[in-house]
Amino acid sequence: MGNRTTIIAGNWKLNKTASETRSTILALRNRLVGLSTRAEVVVFPPFVSLETAIDAARGTGVKVGAQNVFWEQSGAYTGEVSTAMLEALGLNFVLLGHSERRAHFGETDATVARRLEAVLHGTLTPIVCVGEVLEERESGTTGEVLARQVEGALRDVAPDHIGRVVMAYEPVWAIGTGKTASPLIANDAHTLIRSSIAAMFGRSAADETAILYGGSVKPENTATLMSESEVDGVLVGGASLDAGSFAEIVRAAG
């Protein structure tokens, strides 16, 4: 794994009001007190709870990210949020291209690339999500799908910016289904993603890129997933909504 950053990220999706966000982060703070971890711990609440989350996490090692961002900085784009707005709040991370954004809101590799370009002009750390659906897994096209998504998302990234990009592998068939890719399947997919990055930016850049696994991550399977050489962290969904289970995941990650 070398010098790659370990990241334990909790994607809260469409869950938790501002007050629920505050109580969850305060509970998480209490559970992480005295815990020695090499990981960066990040939570991704809904937009309306971001300021509350930052306030609740202040003085701890817990960082806060946004679940999405638009590529323009201002203008007639009702309902959208810019990178400058997120940076002004003091955020550290942003998710891009989550499979739910692709499935429900028309996100494509091309729009992910535009969002990523905007993020890399600022200070946020992007976590770019890629992954295949069940039909693609069963038809044996996982490698082609991952290569297409990685190349499509990273196509406009300058070589000196690739070091800021974090990737996340999310097998769509394992998100919220209770199915988890086996550690070996996850490791193989991460190897494919790293190979695509190497083809675009060179082996050294690929070896430095952190790749997270997301898809029904729980306290019980975190350690085995993290033991794989190509898995640099986890992107947690449902299990991150409970401070106790999320703290257990952080502990299991080492």
Account of the 3D structure:
By secondary structure, this protein is an alpha/beta fold. Helix content is 44%, strand content 15%. The protein has one domain: Alpha-Beta Barrel (TIM Barrel), CATH 3.20.20.70. α1 runs parallel beside α2, α5 (109-120) packs across α7 (142-154) and α10 (219-226) packs parallel to α11. The longest helix has 19 residues, at 183-201. It is globular.
Compose a concise summary of this entry.
By secondary structure, the chain is α/β, with parallel strands linked by helices.
CATH C-level class: Alpha Beta
Specify Rg, calculated over alpha carbons: 17 Å
Structural class: alpha/beta
CATH architecture: Alpha-Beta Barrel
If helices are DSSP runs of H or I spanning 4 or more residues, what is the number of helices? 11
The fold-level CATH name is TIM Barrel
| CATH homologous group name | Aldolase class I
Strand proportion, as a percent range, falls in 5-15%
